Prior knowledge:
The chain is about 45% helix and about 15% strand. It has helices at about 15-30, 65-80, 85-110, 140, 145-150, 155-165, 175-185, 200-205, 210-220, 240-255, 270-280, 295-305, 320-325, 335-340, 355-365, 365-385, 390-405; strands at about 1-5, 40-45, 55, 110-115, 130-135, 170-175, 195, 230, 260-265, 285-290, 305-310, 330-335, 345-350. The N and C termini lie close together (about 10 Å). The protein is built from 17 helices and 13 strands. The longest helix is centred in the N-terminal third of the chain and has 25 residues, at about 85-110.
Amino acid sequence: MKIGVWIDGQVDKNSGGSYTYINTLIKGIDDFNFTSPIEIVFISLNPLTGFNLPCINLKPHQDGISFFKKALRKTLKIISKEFFHKAIDAIDQKEKRIKDESGAAYLKNEGVKIIFYPMPASHIINGIPFILNNWDLAHFTTYSFPEITDNSGFHKRNDWFVNTVPYAIMVLCETEAGKKELSSYLNLNPDKIRVLPMFSSNNFTNAEVSIERQKGFLKKLALKEQHFFFYPAQFWAHKNHYHLIKAFKQFVHEYPDFKLVLCGSDKGNIAYIRDCVKRLELEKNVIFSGFIEDDVLYALYKNASALIMPTFLGPSNIPPLEALSLNCPILCSNLEGHVEMLNNAALYFNPLDDNSILDSMKAIMDKSTREQLLQNQSEQLKITHHNIEKALIKLEAHFNEAINIRSCWE
Length: 410
């Protein structure tokens, strides 16, 4: 049975974890030897090149609304988006309906029976049964941060989960903790939910960056080996740089030569965090490196005292898996998904408690604690199913199960 894998527009490299995840998964699917009866084809609204598997650019095969309707919508937007929003929405919905009907007809003619959407909140082609991939339920599971509530963010997210997710023939999530969230918050039938383990990128964790180059990167950032913590995260409020910095302020009283490296692009919160650093007189100890390339990130993992990740949002995240593969001690928030992925291969803390974060930083300074943690990480790495190879095996099994369901009708 032919399964279409939907590829959205190019994911911005500055988007961090989503870029790593999607590119690793799509390349993995393209290289994986799926067995019969699975037949994979990539589908997009853009031309696709460089793939081993067949590709469909759907856009040329979609009908559109009339020139008059397009002109009317453009005029209404110019006059007043707010006043004419109902009329504009009606035209948008009609356009989507026409595009979906024509697009679905073409895909059916091409033999596509199911579409798998790897990216949450993708453009769903109504008329073709689908499998969804879910990363988190942030609007339910964490606090009302601006990125969740601003610009009707909560309602936009909730609309997807209420009006789209229940119609999937199968929903995938990254951990058993994620499965529990979907079942609990959405009242979704657990029989429709399957785990597709989270993974890091082998291209990144297996990279070859010479010791000399690593030392060069550290020198540029004024860092000493194992004399810094680092946190690769974009500057969203939910990433919790605030409590990390407060805890680090206490830490430097005892270890004044230590640094904290914050690498990631600004999502609206960096000015506030910079101001906090200034007020706490930590300008010499906290480094804002901005977005960094993979070879620099690799060097930070390999030479840091620890990865420290106080995020509120999960239930799972990619950096702890990268640290696991690169032999970097892991200090992270006590999210259920983190504990599930890492077991005793991390030191956990309450992300709202400065002292709890501080205790984990102090603990890793003890040589025996560090050695034991790294030993635990080595053992966990041997048994983990959170890698792309095992994830693709799981995905094949999920596709086969979806085919069994889809085979019940023409």
